Amino acid sequence: MSMSDSSPSLSSTSTSTTPPSSVPSPALSTLSLTDLKDVSEKDKQEAARLKVEANKAFLGHDFSRAVRLYSEAITHNPGDATLFCNRAYTRIKLEEHGYALQDASRAIELNPKYAKAYYRRAMCHIQILKPQQAIIDLKKVISLEPQNAQVRKELESTQKLVRKIEFEKAIEFEEEKNAVERCLEIIAEGSCEVEKNYEGPKLENIEDGKYKITIEFVRSMIQWFKDGNTLPRRYAWEIVLGAHNHFVKEDSLVEVTVNKGATIDVIGDVHGQFYDVLHLLSLTGEPSENHLLLMNGDLVDRGSWSIEVILTAFAFKWLFPKSMYINRGNHEAKEMNRTYGFEGEAKHKHGEQTYKLFAHVFTTLPLATLVSATLPPAEKQNAILSPDGFKRYFVTHGGLFSKDGITLDEIRAIKRVGRQPGTEGLMCQLLWTDPQDSPGWGPSKRGVGIAFGPDVTRRWCELNGVTAVLRSHEVRQDGYAIEHNGLCTTVFSAPNYVDQGGNKGAFIRIDAEGKQEYIQFEGQPHPNIRLWRIKLGDWRASCSRGCLWPGSPFCGPRTIFATPDIELTAAATLSEPVMQKVDVAIQTTTQPYAQAM
């Protein structure tokens, strides 16, 4: 299904196809405990009724409706800590960790001995990259519930995480070579050869151990992946290094022109959903001289096939460097990969050095792309045009900035190679910010970055001669959403996100006149292959994505618990009898506070 819009800047009636899932409650956020008046029995009963309805919506995965119902219940009974705690949990499901943090804190203020609220807040701190703060809250839970063994394990895991982060920071200063240099050194030493018994697709060996990529190899590799196989480590390295050689030559802001007869497809988050990516490529077509692809970040994490997705994208980049473009997303970062699974998956499939290679190459990805038409628009209709009179689009993963006046030249000059986004500054904001309906700037619902209003977008577009901002970073039920009076469009390309979103995917096609077409698609079936890892003596098992927090509120639906009598190897495909035992374990084992309401 596709829709076209010849002048997005004009679309005064265009609104988000998915309204904001939740908004802060300013009237309640400033309410102190002394302001709480006696709540009537009628209001308490209405709040209780709404809570029941919200719980049903939550269990049905209609999290946006659940938030609205909890919010309505809070207006009737603002002194009920459980309402804030429940809304916090729901906002965690919506990845609105900043808002969830506020709700959990409010629940704690109302009930300082509310263990579940401290746990919820700890989970939020993990997501906004503040594990030290999570440790404080988890210790509080233990003080309130000394016998809670599961929370104690979470505390131990978080403490290990903090130690790991500190250790990695320390050794970064000691390592003289980056991962690219080290991999090239290992290859030169002859220590990373293709296994002799490998029978899959083969790169063309041109001379002195150097390889060449062909479209035949890429197509065979995709089929190899579909058949459930992995590439040799050497081939994975060659693909990543081949793409890296092009990324390092690009500015932080890449400029792409769409010539007469050509188009470019802007693709949003795909998050390791390989089988949906294959369907997407069947709709877009392979990159070519007259058909360019631009993947706008978040290729990895969450989904079970992040390696397959990123290797496919990097293979196209190596083969077609001027037809395949890839922006960095907030998930192409160490902190996110550690939490959301790519680190574990990469190490499991190709080893630790391969993950280090990906982690470095991710820092070389451009931060934004300026897509410029080369023909005058058929209908200008007050569109903001470039100084040459053409439409052009600023494509970045997150959005705009916490102040006015940032120019394209400043973005182009950002030093990115070898650097992580962090939690502040221009790089962070490009990868993390979100649009909001109200004017000006606001706090981030995520807890990282900021939110920017339609007036901010218009001022920035007018300053830089940009027709519209195209960004991703957020689920939209229709796959895309036209916002800020047409000056900001969100595109999201992971349909039925993490197997439970129920959303469509979409991409945006732009032609030489700058005309946009929105093409939607549905999620595709994927193999029910579950690879698990388990530590001896540990009751927890998690999927091969390597999630740090198996079973926690923000973990995907593929995560399970296992009882000690279920022994799994590091790469075991679960048989039906074992799956039946696991199903029993799921029914009888409970993550702390996973039963929400």
UniProtKB/TrEMBL annotation:
The keyword Cell membrane appears for this protein: no
SUPFAM superfamilies, sorted: Metallo-dependent phosphatases, TPR-like
Cofactor: Mn(2+)
Keywords: Hydrolase, Manganese, Metal-binding, Repeat, TPR repeat
The protein's Enzyme Commission number: 3.1.3.16
GO molecular function, one term: protein serine/threonine phosphatase activity
Domain Serine/threonine specific protein phosphatases stretches: 327-332
Positions annotated as active site in the UniProt record: 331
Secretion signal span: none
Reactions the enzyme catalyzes: O-phospho-L-threonyl-[protein] + H2O = L-threonyl-[protein] + phosphate
Region named Disordered: 1-29
UniProt repeat feature TPR, residue ranges: 115-148
Family named by the database record: Belongs to the PPP phosphatase family. PP-5 (PP-T) subfamily.
PANTHER family, per database record: SERINE/THREONINE-PROTEIN PHOSPHATASE 5-RELATED, SERINE_THREONINE-PROTEIN PHOSPHATASE 5
UniProt name for this protein: Serine/threonine-protein phosphatase
